[in-house]
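Protein modeling request. Please complete all fields; requests missing the sequence field cannot be processed.
Requester role: graduate student
Desired output: 3D structure, token encoding
Chains: 1
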Amino acid sequence: MELSAQAGPGVEKAAEQTVESACHLADLAGPTGWSTVAAEDVLDAIDTLTETLGGADEELAQALAAVTAATAEARRRLGIAVNDPPPGRDGAASVPVARGPERRPPRRRGLGPGFRGIRTDR
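Delivered output (122 residues):
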């Protein structure tokens, strides 16, 4: 598989912001600065990015399946709820491949407890 030389509108900028945010988070959190909520958010972000990139090609999605399996294992070790695979599957995690309208959007989280909106001075 070969990627296009030109990304879609805004993709490269968003990818750059993502990596900068990840580096900033790594600097802030360090090894002892994590909470369950923060870890869950990071794992959700990894899964979303993995699913999105995997949608570019089925073989790429298969290669990234190890990432999905790793985030599921991380959730188990941290005591975070893991969505189990449907009955009849071997339990191996896989990245869904985008095949038209059946692709579901990534799970979105709310703004968290205590959020009271944005203040405006009107």
